[in-house]
Structure prediction request, 378 residues.
Amino acid sequence: MNTHVTIIGAGLGGLTLARVLHVHGIPSTVYEAEDSPTARAQGGMLDIHDYNGQPALEAAGLTDEFRGLILEGRQQYRVLDRDGTVLFDKADDGTGGRPEVQRSELRRMLLDSLPAGTVRWGHKVSSVRALGEGRYGVSFANGATAVTSLLVGADGAWSKVRPLLSTATPEYTGMSFVETWLFDSDTRHPAAARAVGGGSFWALAPGKGIQAHREHGGTLHTYVALTEPQDWFAAIDFTDSATATARIAQEFDGWAPEFTALITDSDTSPVLRPHYTLPIEHRWDRVPGVTLVGDAAHLAPPNGEGANLAMQDGAELGKALAAHPDDIETALTEYERALFPRSAEAATDGAELLHEFMFGDNAPHSLVNMFTGHEQTP
Prediction:
């Protein structure tokens, strides 16, 4: 294949694509808005699934490297009632199919697997336009430009490439997360550390909840979920850490103090993460020389599938291009034919069902039912 692949976005999907292309001897360039690999925090823990994320890494030839990143014991799952009663506690016995890794380390692994210069940092896209005859021009905020005949948008929720294919725009789901972190928790926040345990923790109620992961060492990364309109969050001054954490904690008045401490005792300022989604059946007609991977193609609320699907997209697109090196349109058609139903199924069976289990009228018992397969009621 002589066509150079232009990838917009150095997230997990774009990097997996670049790596699979490299494995097959296909050159690519990844343009990333961030100034460096360490320009910002890369999120928390990811459970990498044995049916999509792990096969993608296998296609990338990185299975051994991935196994070296796994944090043992993090597949423990705990569900508690708001008063601290333990409703479900499953130890990590080593047989689970969703080992946990740090997103930042997974991204670094992918970056290190690429030839030097593959990723162009500090290239924030300002515009993308069709030039005719299957060619596209990309302009960057730093004044640089690129012209390509094979463009892949791996640039997330607010993709600049997506408008070439679709008029769809993300819409607010009605729920946001507020992220907090506790460091050295076993020493400095022992009650919260005991509550969270060694892996994932959920304390839930209809429409809201406190969720946490144990990351490296004693770091507890918390996601406080609240079903509120965006105006409600806009009324909170998140630049005033003490006021913001107190206001968020107020929504959990009466909950076990070791749970609310995950909010009020945060060692960092709270970070607001509104959730957006694209239509479940989002798809587009084939446009020569351009396609999407990851959130750019199928943005959905957090359901444990987003990163895995992005890597699967990247791997499948890379394999399709390698299988049809002289017929790009056949490769893109084959990729999208599988992409559309796959992403719709994940959104329907994953995001919608998980949201009901976690935040529906019977939460947290509905989540316990999902884990155990047995009916539990309050």
